[in-house]
Amino acid sequence: MTPNASERAMAKNKLKSVRESLLMSKTELAKQADVSPITISRIERGMPCRMETQRKILLALGFKLSDKPKIFKD
Question: Which domain holds residue 53?
């Protein structure tokens, strides 16, 4: 069976599930992380992002940098 787009994204990262568990909108996360909402959407779909963007997102979510494997699987 071929995985659908959301299953492929989950294999890459858990950003959407973590963000939603914190009851945070894409716009709110983008604002706190100082990135665009489009960037958040792309990452949640499994597209790659820079290490600096990952750092900003982790801190905006209230995670430590050492928690990176909990969200990003690269």
Answer: 5-64
Q: Alpha-carbon distance 40 to 33, whole Å?
A: 10
Radius of gyration over every alpha carbon of the chain, rounded to an integer in angstroms: 12
State pLDDT tens for residues 59-71: 999 999 999 999 9
pTM: 0.83
Q: Would the pLDDT of 9 be above 50? A: no
**8-23: burial string, b at 16+ Cβ within 10 Å, e else:** ebbebbbbbebbeeee
What is the Cβ-side half-sphere exposure of residue 43, based on CA atoms within 13 angstroms?
28
For residue 61, the model assigns a pLDDT of 97
- Number of structural domains (the chain) is 1
33 within domain boundaries:
yes
